[in-house]
Amino acid sequence: MHDDAAILSVDIGGTTTAAGLVTPEGLILSCETAPTLGRGRGRVLEGILALLVATRADAVRRGVRLRGVGVGVPGAVDATTGQIGRDIQNLPELAGCPLGARVTEALDLPAVVDNDVNALTLGESYYGAARGARHFALLALGTGVGGGLYLNGELVRGVSGYGGELGHIPVDLNGRACFCGGRGCLKAYVSGPDIAAQAREALAEAEGSALLALAGSPEALTARHVFEAAGAGDPLALDVVERVCQALGAGLAAILNGFNPELIVLTGGVAESLEAFMDAVLRWTRAYAFDGAYRAARIACVAIGKSASIRGAAALYLYEEARRGGARG
To answer: Which H/E stretch holds residue 147?
Structure first.
């Protein structure tokens, strides 16, 4: 295998799939997107494989050698076999699909498949804010809350692929319902839709708020409206954001106390909005965490951009290639 051969990198989302050619240094040579087609496993898989075949053809036209395929998907995966778990929420059509084998069969290239936030975590390790760190965690705060753990220089997957599901750390034993079936999960307080839901609940019991002027109606309310109103000093929005900061602080403290990382990377749209309120997040984190664990860590909001998922899939392939056969690239 040529060390400079590129990786065919794939990020499969609930609505869009992206595929590109990425060098081992993280340079994106090309990237294309296509809708993730619904209505049945065959249709979803057919669309994904068609995009991958087109991307491989693009590599041939460019004279780019390929070493393998890295694929990130939104759910638990058996990374050893490339089989997707049964409880993939965003793409139930792929539940139980042996995706790694199907990709290898279609492209005649070795393939590595894993959870998309695990791939993102490795991307930060290889190319981003966590480069050089041996002990770190990543929280992707957006429409959901994804997590990744990288400890002692290795990605933590656990015995069945659920390692790093940090969005489901309980922060309130009798708290808000989560889509996973549990209650009080971190995700139920700090994801974008859940922040908006908490604001709507508060509005129903309030006499007025700048939130309504921003959003137009409770139904149109988003997390971005909540943060904007809080930044302008609206009392109701400030109260909601304070509860979000408290829940996030409790979750971060659980990570610090449980794993003692040197770094926690916060990314995603909610993390970008929270950056203006990090003093409150850190205040609550410090209140719940061991002092030694808190002082040893850096907690950083990182805007990693839309290309991060494609770089992450490349890092995923390189990580597994090194783990299975040689030194890290």
So the answer is: strand 145-151
Note whether 23 and 29 are within 8 A (CB). Answer: yes
Alpha carbon distance, N-terminus to C-terminus of the chain: 13
d(CA 148, CA 137): 6
Which of 55-59, 71-75, 159-163, 274-278 has the weakest average pLDDT?
A: 159-163
For 139, phi then psi, to 5°, come to -120, 120
Q: How far apart are CA 236 and CA 202, in angstroms?
A: 7
CATH of 131-301, picked from 3.40.50.1000, 3.40.50.720, 3.30.420.40, 3.10.20.30, is 3.30.420.40
Burial of residue 4, with CB atoms counted within 10 A of its CB: 0-12 exposed, 13-18 middle, 19 or more buried:
exposed
Domain 6-124+306-325 matches domain 131-301 at the CATH topology level: yes
| pTM assigned to the model | 0.93
* Residue 327 pLDDT class (50, 70, 90 cuts): very low
Tokens of 181: 């079936």
Calculate ∠ Cα 161-9-180, nearest 5°.
30
Quick: pLDDT tens for 195-234: 999 999 999 988 778 898 898 899 999 999 999 999 999 9
